[in-house]
Amino acid sequence: MSGEVIVYASISTWEYGCCGDVPQPGARIDGTLEAVPARNGDRFTPTSQFTWNRELELVQFTGWSARWNPSDGDPTAQPIDVYLSWHPLSELVTPTVTGTVVTAHEIRNAPDGSGGYTYTQVDTLPRFPDMHGTPESVIGVIVGFIPDSFSEPTADDLALAHAAAERGTRTVQLTGPAAAFGVTVPHAYSRLTIDLDADGLERSGAGSRVSGVVSGDTRQVSRVLRNEKNDLYTGFGRAPEGESTSDLDETLYVVLTIDSEHF
Predict the structure, then answer these.
(1) What is the model's pLDDT at position 1?
(2) Gap between the Cα atoms of 132 and 107, Å rounded
(3) Residue 18: what are its φ and ψ, rounded to 5°?
(4) What sections of 87-184 are H helices per DSSP?
(5) Comparing 40-44, 73-77, 183-187, which segment has the lowest mean pLDDT?
(6) What is the mean pLDDT of the chain?
(7) If you compute the radius of gyration of the chain from its CA atoms, what whole number of angstroms results?
């Protein structure tokens, strides 16, 4: 391994417990990389030099890079940790990487309650580690892997991601009687004008701080499915789009991105 780049990254237990290969030595990994301020006493912070690309929100190393959230400050002025995931957690664009695991260390909370961590090198990993709810339970794994390919987002990718994130701040989830949504059941991906204070209408999400009559674009229109025995929510079904709501005994779920003029 002399001369080869080895990247050390944390992987949460739920990642490989959910799906994908268990990240033990010899395994192939494929995921996204994000850098964050380091944990207390972490032994695996990157030590090689890197460039902070503010425009692309990246820390760039030789042969790989990781996303850096500008709200976390200057990465060059603090120790950082790197996390690998294969589950997209947001609209944000993140560098991707593939490689082969060469080392693995289980991470546990320090038993002395100091807020630190202990690391145990292992040759194999169980998909579901012994948790037991104890303070020193396994919380993840540090893998050292050799990357063989990676990709970075472009400025256009980042602009699109930020636009999607901004739309998220104007998006509200609405649940209520069909009549609250107008004369007819709205169609998905269409315009909708609605009184957010209508009787029986519940709202949640970032856009729920707005009230009154608003207009926007629907992202989802579904009927709420309930268990006939106990009336508990069970899921979503196809909405009777275009039907009159006057005599429709349906509870609808609508995701609406409200026009920016209402904010």
Answers:
(1) 45
(2) 15
(3) -75, -55
(4) 155-168
(5) 40-44
(6) 89
(7) 24
Of 88 and 146, the structure prediction assigns the larger pLDDT to 146
Residue whose pair of structure tokens reads 């100091």 in the numeric block: 114
Distance CA 104, CA 106 (A): 7
Looking up tokens 């009549």, which residue turns up? 179
SS3 261: helix
Is the separation of the CB atoms in 245 and 184 below 8 Å?
yes
- Other C-beta atoms closer than 10 Å to the C-beta of 51 total 13
244 pLDDT tier (thresholds 50, 70, 90) = very high
Q: Lowest-confidence range among 8-17, 39-48, 77-86, 194-203?
A: 39-48
Is residue 160 within a helix (H) or strand (E), and if so which, with residue range?
Answer: helix 155-168
Residue with tokens 């992202």: 219
As a residue count, the chain comes to: 263
What number is the average pLDDT over the span 53-76? 93
- Cβ–Cβ under 8 Å, residues 85 and 55: no
Other C-beta atoms within 10 Å of 18: how many? 11
- Amino acid symbol at 120: T
Contact yes or no for 179/195 (Cβ under 8 A): no
